[in-house]
Amino acid sequence: MNIVEKKLSDLKPYSNNPRKNDNAVKPVMESIRQFGFKVPLVIDSNGVIACGHTRYKAAKKLKLSTVPCIIASDLNEEQIKAFRLADNKVAESAEWDFDLLSLELDDILEIDMSDFGFKSLHTDYDLESVESDPQKLEIIDERDPSCQHNCFENQDLMQFPCTGFYGIPEMQATQTTGDKMLRFMDWKEVGDPENYIAHFYYDDYKFISAWREPNKYINRLREFKAVISPDFSLYTDFPKALQILSCYRRQWCAAYWQYMGIDVIPDVVWGDRDTFDFCFDGIPKHSTVAVSTVGVKNDKNWNNKLDSLFKAGYDEMLNRLEPTTILFYGDMIDDLEGNIIRIPSYYEEKRKILNERVKEKRG
Known about the structure:
Largest sheet: 4 strands, mixed
Number of strands: 13
Radius of gyration: 26 Å
Strand order of the largest sheet: 1-4-2-3
Structural class: alpha/beta
Order of helices and strands: EHEEHEHHHEEEEHHEHEEHEEH
Distance between the termini: 33 Å
Shape: elongated
Number of helices: 10
Strand content: 5-15%
């Protein structure tokens, strides 16, 4: 198979091409820009494109002078027509394995995959649609009257005793422990939720509706052995106002769920040392607590300095809260003290399954 460079001006799109591809041009342009022109066009002996119309349009917009091509001189006119249709049609038969896709996207830290059509992780989606069909994530419409009460940040629904300068709601201690955790969005995957602790250690956009519509999931949450309070992000590059709001939302949900009769385990999360002034507010002493490195240790900026910062926050938690048990979800770091129950993350479990599949295939 010979790949030759052809002038873009010498190539001709097929006039009866039935494939509408204008929406795909921009992500293909971005792919060529970032990774190079890695997939040649297929043309006939007259320079008419058989496969690669989208790449051709992207190349024109990028003002490329030449592109790599394969000349299908071994195919007659009918075979070229059939090949052109078959090449487009077979792609429609493929489906995403969304668990594997999540793993792959999770490992890509320095490339913005939204440039290629993947959903941004910072868009708010409705949790119910994620649970029912993860392929159809529906954006929440803020104009929906059902969302209007949230302009009061749930204050019209319930107010709780607060602690600290910022008035973060207090919750009660619990001694519930366990080593079986399940992402709340995967509640349909098990037949015995009463044996699991539900957690929210995944992207905020997947569980923001638990805050916006706090009554919507009460009955479902009650089915679990316990629930870890939602892990609203507290990244070090967040403005302090957003960090405080994340703590407030976490603690309000925890207090409300407890009020509704649910066993809630406090999630403890911190950022830099400045967050120590408020990130532990409202969390009871002498309780089981939960911490996680998910979304933290896979950060592209993770290094020994952040490792030390995580340990500083962890030690501060031990001193302030004196927890009886620590449910540690995700990758451990060295030299942590306390009564720790280490629980593998969802991605660890998936990678383990993948590795087992690979071993089976290799015999």
